[in-house]
Every structure is written in structure tokens, then in C-alpha cells.
Design a protein that fits this description.
Low-confidence stretches of chain A: 1-9
Distance between the termini of chain A: 79 Å
Number of domains of chain B: 2
Number of helices of chain A: 13
Helix content of chain B: 55-70%
Distance between the termini of chain B: 46 Å
Order of helices and strands of chain B: HHHHHHHH
Low-confidence stretches of chain B: 101-107, 197-209
Structural class of chain A: mainly alpha
Shape of chain B: globular
Order of helices and strands of chain A: HHHHHHHHHHHHH
Shape of chain A: elongated
Strand content of chain B: under 5%
Largest interface: A-B, 39 and 50 residues
Number of strands of chain A: 0
Oligomer: heterodimer
Helix content of chain A: 55-70%
CATH architecture of the largest domain in chain B: Orthogonal Bundle
Mean pLDDT of chain A: 74
Largest sheet of chain A: none
Mean pLDDT of chain B: 84
CATH superfamily of the largest domain in chain B: RNA polymerase sigma factor, region 2, helix turn helix motif
CATH class of the largest domain in chain B: Mainly Alpha
Largest sheet of chain B: none
Number of strands of chain B: 0
CATH topology of the largest domain in chain B: Rna Polymerase Sigma Factor, Chain: A
Strand content of chain A: under 5%
């Protein structure tokens, strides 16, 4: 037997008297505490007026409700609140969003580490092979090593006289695309 | 206008400690009573009631008013009580295996009956009556016990109790009927003679299922 809210069709009283006695189980408590729907209440009352056994049981249930009312309430001990406050005070404070952030020192260290690793990973590997470095091919001229060499020799390169008399510059290829591919092969 | 429990809890979530105090004052006694009647030990009941408030306080940041506050709170309380009862039963079983001596009634603070009776004799009768009722309630299976306590003493709605006990409303009504049927038999001596009928109806054992 289900209790469909809103439906005014009584769920009790449609069956034969014997079946109603069994069906009373699911509606009796609700009827006695006054929460049964009007349609069900009317059906229960009709059944109780015809069935002495169910009427007696309903009376006994009602009497038990009254007996249960005699159970006295206990009061919490005077120390209840103080004890609870102590337990709450002992709780670790909840961490806010900002507290989840690391300390400034740690944040700086992590940031520095990340920047360093990104910089190192983006920098092409420097080949230290003396054989490769000594070869005067165009590959070496555009390699990372030569870039570092240029930076190192910047004061010299800024000297117009030196640069203008530097024959190697005239040997550079017109398009850097082809040598760049070869550089990749070389670095592998 | 008084704030609802849900509003109070939302204020607690927003950091208002005073609202938590209001919830504590409102539900401290009902919770202690519910738990005492579940576990029949005042010290354990108080400890569990504090644990309920502590869990409510801990969960304040995640609180979402998806159900009534009382449903949520009594669900926590019921789960804690059921765990405590089961743990206690297990512990008692271990003790009885080690020490097969009848320990008698469990130690507990005597039930404090309000002093409304004029004589010592009436006071004694009231205490005996209260003790019998408490024993009868405690003799119910845990789920039936919780259902009766939430229905009779906390007066929660059927849908609320069903949610607390995680069962359907129809299952709850059946549970309540069986519980009251047992209590009807157990507490028959306390029923006034005009109502009492000293018999168990045919087809009904009076034992909880």
C-alpha cells in the first residue's frame, strides 16, 4: 500500500473487511497521530465502526501513545556546552583559498626553478665537439655555438672596421631555411 | 522574524558563530534525549550529541540546504547512535566471552525524573514507570527504535523520518506499526485498566520482525 500525496482516493477501505484489517497496519499510526488524509481518515473510521478487533487495537495503540508521553526528558549536563566549545576550539581552522598558496619564499623558489627549467629546455644544446666546432662549414656559422660566440665577441663585432673586413660574412647563404634544417639534423 | 534553521545554518556557513550557538541551544536537549533513548547511557548520549554538533560545524562550509536541517542533523545522530549500539554490542560480546559473569544492568546515571510528585512513593512509581518505558523502547530493534523516537518524541514528518532512516515511506509506516505493536504488548501493564486488554491478538506474536 502506497501513500500517494495529493490523491483523494482513499487507499484504505476498498477491499473486503478481512483485507482491510491487514491493510490497517499501514495506516493506523498515521490515523492515530492525526496525519492521515481526510479520505483515508474517513475510510479508517468507517472500518473501525464495523470491526471490533481493529477498534480495540486502535484504542490500545492510542493508550500506548499516552504511556510513551510519560517518559521524562533528560537534561544535558551543565558541562555540555563548555565541553563542546572545547572540542570545537581544538578543531584545526579551515584553510581558506589564500592559505592554500605556498609561502612567499617557497613560491619564489618554485617560480625561479620553473623559469630556469623553461629557459634551459628552450635553449638548443651546445655541441662541444671540437671537430664540429673547428669545421668552417655554414652549419657551424648558424649554430647555437656560433651565436654564443657572437655574443661573447660582441664588442669586436660592434667595431665596424672589423666587421666590414670580415670575409666570412660574404660566404653566408642567401636563404637561412636550408641550413636551419641541416642544423636540426646536426643537433640530433 | 525568527530565522529558520536553514537560514541559521547558512549564516554559520558565512562565518556567523552566533547562529551556531542558536542552533546548539535549540537542538541540544532534543538531541541528547534522542541519543539517550537510543543508547540508554547518558555519558555516551552526551558524547554522541557533541559529535553531531561537531560534524555539523565541520560541514558548515559544504552545507547546501537540499533538505530540512532537522533531517540532516537527525540523520547524523541516527547513524552515530546505530554505530555506537553495534560497537557496544560487539564489545559486550567480547567481554562476555572473556568473563562469563552476568554484569547485570549497564552502569548509567539514574534517570532524572522531574520532581512534580508530592511524595517519595509517587516519585518511585514514576521512576519505575519511566524505566519500564525506556526498557521497552530499548528492546526494539535499532531501526524500529529510531523510527519510534523520531515519530513520537521528535515529531518529524513521515518523509523526514524515511529520509533519516533511508527507507520508503510505506516501509517506515510498516516499521512503526510493528514497533508500536511490540510496545503495546511490552507496556500493557502500564496501560490504564479501562483500556488494557491482557491478551495478544491471534496471528500476532508481538515480537519485532
Amino acid at each position: 500500500m502506497n501513500c500517494d500525496e495529493g490523491s483523494e482516493v482513499p487507499m484504505f477501505g476498498k477491499e473486503s473487511s478481512q483485507k482491510n484489517c491487514a491493510a490497517l497496519e499501514s495506516i493506523l499510526v498515521e490515523y492515530l497521530d492525526g496525519r492521515a488524509r481526510p479520505a483515508d481518515r474517513h475510510a479508517v473510521e468507517q472500518h473501525l465502526s464495523q470491526c471490533a478487533a481493529c477498534r480495540l487495537r486502535a484504542e490500545e495503540f492510542r493508550a500506548i501513545f499516552g504511556v510513551l508521553d510519560d517518559l521524562p526528558a533528560v537534561a544535558p549536563s551543565p558541562a555540555f556546552d563548555a565541553s563542546l566549545r572545547a572540542r570545537i576550539a581544538a578543531e584545526p581552522a579551515p584553510r581558506s583559498f589564500w592559505q592554500w598558496l605556498p609561502s612567499p619564499r617557497l613560491a619564489f623558489a618554485v617560480t625561479a626553478l620553473v623559469v630556469l627549467s623553461v629557459w634551459l629546455s628552450s635553449t638548443p644544446r651546445v655541441t662541444t665537439s671540437p671537430v664540429v666546432a673547428s669545421q668552417p662549414s655554414p652549419l657551424n656559422q648558424v649554430s647555437a655555438e656560433s651565436d654564443f660566440g657572437m655574443i661573447r665577441d660582441l664588442p669586436v663585432l660592434e667595431n665596424f672596421d672589423v666587421v666590414s673586413k670580415f670575409d666570412a660574412l660574404s660566404e653566408l647563404p642567401a636563404s637561412p631555411a636550408a641550413p636551419a634544417e641541416e642544423v636540426k639534423k646536426e643537433t640530433r | 522574524m525568527a530565522r529558520t534553521d536553514v537560514q541559521l545554518m547558512l549564516d554559520v556557513k558565512a562565518g556567523d558563530e552566533q547562529s551556531f550557538e542558536l542552533l546548539l541551544r535549540k537542538y541540544r536537549t532534543p538531541l541528547v534525549n534522542f541519543l539517550f533513548r537510543m543508547v540508554r547511557d547518558t555519558a555516551v548520549a552526551e558524547d554522541l550529541a557533541q559529535e553531531v554538533f561537531l560534524r555539523v560545524y565541520r560541514a558548515r562550509q559544504e552545507y547546501a540546504p537540499s533538505a530540512k536541517f532537522t533531517t540532516w542533523m537527525f540523520r547524523i545522530a541516527t547513524n552515530l547512535a546505530l554505530n555506537s549500539v553495534r560497537d557496544n554490542r560487539h564489545r559486550k560480546l567480547e567481554i562476555s566471552m572473556d568473563q562469563p559473569v552476568d554484569m547485570g544492568e549497564e552502569e548509567q546515571r539514574p534517570l532524572e525524573v522531574p520532581d512534580r510528585t508530592p511524595s517519595v512513593e509517587q516519585d518511585l512509581v514514576a521512576r519505575c514507570r519511566a524505566d519500564m518505558i525506556l526498557k521497552a523502547i530499548h528492546s526494539l530493534p535499532e531501526k524500529q527504535r529510531a523510527a519510534v523516537l523520531l515519530h513520537k518524541y521528535q515529531e518529524l514528518d513521515y518523509d523526514e523520518i524515511a529520509r533519516v532512516l533511508e527507507c520508503s515511506e510505506s516501509a517506515l509506516k510498516s516499521l512503526l506499526f510493528r514497533a508500536y505493536e511490540t510496545l503495546r504488548v511490552e507496556l500493557a501493564p502500564l496501560v490504564s485498566p479501562t483500556v488494557r486488554v491482557d491478551r495478544v491478538p491471534a496471528g500476532r506474536s508481538g515480537q519485532p520482525v
